Amino acid sequence: HPMFGQKRRKKVTEIDWPCLQALFEDDGLRAAAERLYPDPKNESFLSALRRIDPKMANDVMSLGRQVFHGARLAEYPTLAVAGMLNSGKTSLVARLLSPQGRLRTLRGIANHQGTHRFVLWLPQKWQEEPTLWQLLLDDFGHAVGNPPELLADLPEEAHEQYNNRGGGADALGVPLVATDPALDDLGIGLLDCPDIVSDEVFGVGSPERRRELLGKASTFCSAFLVVSTPSMARDRVLGDILQTIAELMPGIPRLLAVNKIRPNQTPEDVLEAFEPQASKFGVERVYGAYDYELPKSEPFIPKSAKEGDREIAIENSEDDPMPIFFSLSPM
Fold this sequence. Notes:
Layout lengths: L16 H8 L8 E3 L5 E3 L1 H8 L1 H20 L4 E6 L5 H7 L3 H6 L14 E5 L6 H15 L4 E2 L4 H8 L13 E5 L2 H4 L2 E4 L14 H12 L4 E6 L7 H13 L5 E8 L5 H14 L2 E8 L13 E4 L2 E4 L12 E2 L4
Parallel strand pairs: 3-7, 3-8, 4-6, 5-6, 8-9, 9-10
Antiparallel strand pairs: 1-2, 4-7, 10-13, 11-12
């Protein structure tokens, strides 16, 4: 997809924590300390550290696991997608899924079609490695604060989970996980975040609770994309979202996608309108999509994209049209 490059991050030297832990716990030939009194014997590094500073010993073990797991997960990036109710956030996520996956997403403009749970979409092939899969689920659950549940295969049941029908405010913090084969080529996960709302939505989580969980979830992600509309260029809530992400995860890339651009608005107009927010919160790139529901938008919607020397046609079903995003920022 033009929005995401295919370049993967360079292979980094991994720390073999299990091997290092075995060395730290060795009280034989590779023991770190020799004890002379009262009973002469060798003592492992961790055993000696636990006697001297138990807290530091626990910290060493905890950090070792984090570094080991973090190095593995760095090869499996996830893009968080957040936005206001009716911004077209889930439509953007659906655009990157298979037809079967799209049926399980919940899209529409009414509250009963809103996203009121975290839904993590992962490449199907990642599930084929049981150790990696469990590591991803554990890490995601730890970030949000609750173990995830699986998204139902049947669209009707999946929609009920997406919309948190009957789940109440507590279910907002219980994330959902699904896989999709269309993400295999992209090599990334997509975290469809609950809609950011300006007031309490029918008992499924206050704006404050949603922003708190959004901040927690951002610690699992490799990049963050916020979906907006042209009318939100100076919206305080958009600024709050970007500030939350900037404060909690200052090192991760931040992207902005402006959906539902009207035919009388040029890309330059939109870019200029969002420039103050983008500059203030370190947004790396701004994308845009014209409102496909307006007939006059047709000439401005991309019909093809270039990948190297190849030109690829962009398909958009008449039965289930979706926004086509392109970069507004200069290359």
